[in-house]
Every structure is written in structure tokens, then in C-alpha cells.
Amino acid sequence: MSYREPLEETRLLESFANTIDVERGADLLESVEGMRAWLAAQGLPAHVTPHDLARARTLRQGLRARLLADGEQPDRRSMAAAHAVLDGLALRSDDPLAAIARAWLATTAGGEWPRLKRCPDRRCGWVFWDGSRDGTRTRCSRPPAASPGASPGPSGSAVLTVLRGRP
Ligand SMILES: [Zn+2]
Q1: Distance 41 CA to ligand 1 centre (A)
Q2: For residue 121, how many other CB atoms are within 10 A of its CB?
Q3: Which of 22, 35, 60, 100 is the 20 to 30 Å CA partner of 42?
């Protein structure tokens, strides 16, 4: 149980940002089918055209650019492109991306951005919610990807315990 739980809408943004998994080399927004699967898993309307897919990728790129890692320069072009998509959505309920736009607005209105973070490890880049008391967590606690054919690795907390035990 974390000290502070995110808004439901911010959870949706977190999940959307993580439709790309850098470490495992997987991207749900590589295809219309992948995007449909993600939307359906969120309980959202899943009628997706190739144009929707392109807009979703633009939105995600801007979202991930907004979730800066420490010392990174903001990618203003990505963010501007994402905002252009958001403006065009105009909160239409029949658009598969409308829920993302609403989540973006709710996250802004709720002041949730500072706790939605992107792991600064470039091989990882996982987006996570920082529910710590002081909001100073910088890295995700995701277990590392197991190499193909290997047995499942230890859980994230087990890895941390091992790391802490090192001199
Ligand atoms: Zn990470």
C-alpha cells in the first residue's frame, strides 16, 4: 500500500505510457490489433483505424517526453505534437483516444504529474507512479526481464534486498 494512490485517470495514462516496453522490446502500438487489445483491456471502445494508431503514437511520444528523467531536456516538438492531437480530440466520446485526453486533463487538474515518472535507466524507461511519502522515488521497482529460456527471475523486492546487502 503506497502512501498516496493516483487518480484512476492517472493510472490509465501510466498504462498508456507503458504500451511500449523498452526493456522487453515490445510495443502494443505497433499495430491496430495491439492498440485494440490495450483499449479492450482498459474497458474502452476499441474501434481503431490506422489514423487512430498514428495519433496514439504521437500522444504517447509526447506523454513520455513530458515525464522527463532527471537531467533530460524536454522534447518540445514531441510535446507540441501531442498537444495538437489533444486539442483535436475535443473530448469526443466516440473517439478511442477521448479517454486518454480526459485522463490527461484530469492528471493536470489533479496536480498528479510530479508523481508520474519515467525510469531514468535508458534500457528500462518504465513509467511508474511514485506513491512514496515524500515523492522522491526516482527509479521503478520493476523486476529485470528474464532472458529467453531462463527460469523466472527474482521479484523486484528480492533484487532490491540483494542489492542493499552488498557492501
Ligand atoms: Zn526501471
Answers
A1: 23
A2: 15
A3: 22
Query: pLDDT tens digits, residue range 21-60?
Result: 999 999 999 999 999 999 999 999 899 999 999 999 999 9
CB 56 within 8 A of CB 81: no
CA of 23 to the centre of ligand 1 (A): 9
The upper half-sphere exposure of residue 60, i.e. CA atoms within 13 Å in the direction of its Cβ, equals 24
Beta carbons of 121 and 70 less than 8 angstroms apart = no
| Domain 8-164 CATH (choose: 1.10.287, 3.90.550, 1.20.120, 1.10.3300) | 1.10.3300
Distance 32 CA to ligand 1 centre (A): 27
Grid coordinates given for 145? 526481464
Contact of 56 with 62, CB cutoff 8 Å: no
The predicted model scores a pTM of 0.83
Dist. CA 62 → ligand 1 center (Å)? 19
